[in-house]
Structure formats: structure tokens, C-alpha cells
Amino acid sequence: MPITEYLERNRKLFGDEVALVEVNPEQKEPPRVTWKEYSLIQPTQSQSYRREITWRVFDEKANRFANLLLSRGVGKGKKVAILMMNCLEWLPIYFGILKTGAVAVPFNFRYASDEILYCADLAQVDVMVFGPEFIGRIEAIEDKLSSHRLLIYVGGENCPTFAESYRDLVADCSSASPHIEISDDEDGAIYFSSGTTGFPKAILHKHRSLMHAATVEQKHHSTSRDDCFLCIPPLYHTGAKMHWFGSLVSGSKAVLLRGTKPEYIFETVSREHCTIVWLLVPWAQDILDALDSGALKISDYKLDQWRLMHIGAQPVPPSMIRHWLEYFPNHQYDTNYGLSESIGPGCVHLGVENVHKVGAIGVPGYGWETKIVDEAGEPVRQGEAGELCVKGAGVMTCYYRNPEATAEVMMPDGWLRTGDVAMQDEDGFIFLVDRKKDVIVSGGENLYPVQIEDFLRTNDKIHDVAVIGLPDQRLGEIAGAVISLKEGMEATEEEIREFCKGLPRYKRPQKIIFADVPRNATGKIEKPKLRRMYGEEYLVAYENRK
Fold first, then answer.
1. What string of DSSP letters covers 495-518?
2. 337 Cβ contact partners less than 8 Å away, ≥ 6 residues apart
């Protein structure tokens, strides 16, 4: 069945209960709803902008948008893009699209104008729904977008002249379900690859994938009616939305937090009584740094109800989780591995019962199979490194309009090549070694940056680190470590080199660079960007020495 049926069920069973809350600590405006929950706790800072909707209002908003689209001839076979920051309108619009049988196409909010146009053309988008933050970017390409597309603005009073107002359009639309029959085998959504090696690829999923993601999330984290999920990452990404699907299945409340500062996270967990929080590595590290420095105090907040902290989207340093559990010994912990091609998180997960295996990405998720293969596609022996492959109902249909790229990753019998190098230990737990494209080949030896990064993160002075391959005339490549120090800390190259003597000689970084470590919106280190920055710089320096 399509996931829209869960929304309609929740309206019938829990119609007057809160479904979604939007909190923006950096926007100090009067709240649009009562502060019934906020009044229970004395806030440690001024009250944040806050809105909420019930399951009944959620479904009504989705129906209004669905009926609007259908009135404009947008239904099955059409594609509707969403270019918005996290807000209360995002998910009702997404579900409104699904209810028509059209394909939902979330856009990365970091896209520049040329990327927006490229993705709109690639996905053959018929409607573009955008928020106020993107007026300038849309205006720059409006002549190319609006010639054959409907542009809908979701914002306040000042709707740009080249678009139509969402608020005005849906005002007179019916809030009743359009009752469009949708099967599991129909196209449901297009997501985009991260685009770290060029323009993104369009990833097509059927409704079956979306339902599988919802089932997996609820099973993995036992999301119940008593839970409250705190969602911080952007909803355009499969990770955030598919984790929220657990709340959809259980009919429980979720909170969309605009802001990643440690105090914002603690404040929201405290006030909204959040029980499940999904963090990215940088945010978890920021919280630990703030706790270590005394800038953040657990005693200032109500956190007893917080039962689960889980992390995904990038390799997780084991030392960080061990440190986390020193502060929160009663927390359940899980790590989730996935990719947009496998409908986001959950094809591999650690499991809350396996905290003793911190460092592993885990075991096959609910309804998933895994195998690790060599270049020829043959399974490797246990303990050997190879490419991780996954199989399940959440595997993509294809890279939309790109059969060549599809053929590179899709294997016979529905197996998907992930592009990640992994190995399996004697207990059956999978460890992520590195991205296949990030492996450094130095003098014939394979160096896996994640292993070196995990070691460096055990240094108390290091906040974040990225290890990349730098060109070398003799060895082909050498390992370079880009290191971001904790606030107030100082270190020298010699000090880091001395620390690295704890590594085998061939794994020690030969170049130390003190600089910021860039990460994208989902927390992944932007290694191609670092290789461009420092690889070229290193080549120039080498040529000047000759």
C-alpha cells in the first residue's frame, strides 16, 4: 500500500493529536499556537518561534494541495519539485504530491541556480514549489523554468510576480481525499545523488521503496505512540524523511528544528519532550565539546525522557560514541547505513542491542540482504575488504534517464553496488572501510582514510579531520590530513606527527594541514573539494621545489 494510507489512518485515529511541530530558535516572533507544552519548563533563553499542526490538519493540507495539482492537470506521470527549507508546509506538500499519483522530487536547498535548472530538466519537472529563501535563485533562471512549468511560491505576502501563491491557490481547494488509486509498482519519488563528483544523478523510487523505508525505520527503533522524534537534517534528504517515517507509522509526534547549535538541540529535546534524536557526526561532536568545556550543562535541561540517539550519513568515530555514553550511559545507540539509491538509512544498521560493536555499521537491516564482493563481483572471504552490495525492496528502480550509470551499479538479481569498501568480522558485523573512490593507493599499498581519521579523532585537541590522497611523484599518492582543532586548542605539525606514531608507518599522514573540514548538508565530508583545493596546491609547491 502507499504510505499516504498511513496519513489517512492517523487522521481517523489521532486526528486531534499533534503530528508536527516547527521550532526556529533564531526567529523571535510571537508563536502562532498556544505554549501549552512550553509552559511546563522555564526556558533558559527567550522563547523560539513555534508552530504545530495536528494529524487532521496535516491530512487536510495534503488533500488541498493534491486537489490543487489535479485541477491543473498534474497527476500520474507528472513530476513536482520541492525546493524549501524545513517547515510545517514541507511534508503536507510532499504527501499532497503522492496522493495525486505524481512523482515527488525534493531538491537540495544548497543548489545554485544552474544546478536547479539542470535537475529540473533531468527529472522533467512539471511544477516547482519553492520557499522565500530561493526567490533570487529561481528568478535568475525564471525565463527557462516558467516557459513550460508551474511555479508555486510558499511564503508570506510577497509572492514574486513570476510565480503563483500557494496560500491563495489552496484556499478554495477541497480538503477531502482525491481517492486516486496508487499501486506499489508506480513511481513515487525522485531523489538526487550528492553530486560530489559533478552534477547529481536522479534516483527513481517506486511507492514500494517508500513503504519499505517506513517499515524498516519503525522496526529498527521500535518507534511507538509515546515517542517524539527530533528531526534536524533537511527533509529533502532521504535520511531525515525516512527516519520521520517511523513517526508516521506509529502515529507519534515529531519536531522539525531549524538550527544545529548544541543549546538549541538540548532546549528543544527538553521543552518538546523528545525521546528519539538523529544526529550527524559534527553536531554530536559539537555537543560533546560544549559539555567538555562547561558551556552546556545537562542539569539545566529535562533530558531523562531521551532514550535513543542514532547517527548516520557518514562513518562514525567509535571514540566519539564511547565519549557520548560517558555523558549519557542510559542512552540506546544505533548507527544507520544507507544511501539514496537504497532509499536512505537502514539497509545496514548496528542495532541498539549491539553497542559493544561500536565501530561497525552493523548487520543487514530488516528486509535487507548484504554481500561483499571483489572487482569481478564474486564474494570475498570473511575478513577481506571488498565492495558492499545490498538487496531489498528499497533498492532504486534506476538512475532516471541514465541507463549507462544504472548499469554500473545494478547487478543481476536486484543487487546494488554501493561504492563503499567494507569487511565482515567473524561475528558477521560489517565494518565500513572507506568510499571506493576515496581509497589512497600509496606505493602499492591501499590506505583507507576512515581508519586514519578514526585514530586521529582520539586526540583530545582535534575537533574534526579529513584524510585525502595528495599527488606524489614517487609513491603516486600520499595521505594528507586536514585537521580542525577544538576551539581554544593549539597544536603543531610536529605534535600531530608524534601522535601518529601510534599508527603503522605506512598509514601515517605525510602532510598535515590545519584548516576547516567542509561538510555538506547531510554531514558528509566534501573530499572532492578538499582534493581540488590541496591537491593542486601540493602540486604547485612540488614543482616550485624542483
1. HHHHHGGGS-GGGS-SEEEES---
2. 312, 345, 346, 347, 348, 349, 361, 362, 430, 432
The residue ranges of every structural domain in the chain are: 439-545
In 443-523, DSSP assigns E strands to: 445-447, 462-472, 476-485, 511-514
How far is residue 269's CA from residue 85's CA, in Å, rounded to a whole number?
Answer: 21
| Close Cβ partners of 176 (under 8 Å, ≥ 6 residues apart) | 63, 67
Q: What is the DSSP string of 137-205?
A: HHHHTHHHHTTSSEEEE-SSS---TTSEEHHHHHHTS--S-------TTSEEEEEE---TTSSPPEEEE
C-alpha cell at 343: 532509499
Residue segments in the chain with a per-residue pLDDT below the cut of 50: 30-46, 196-197, 540, 542-546
Stated pTM of the model: 0.83
The values of phi and psi at residue 363, to 5°, are: -125, 165
Contact 70, 78 (CB under 8 A): no
CB 504 within 8 A of CB 451: no
For residue 510, give the C-alpha cell: 605525510
Which CATH number, 3.30.300.30, 3.90.1170.50, 3.30.70.1060, 3.30.1490.190, labels domain 439-545? Answer: 3.30.300.30
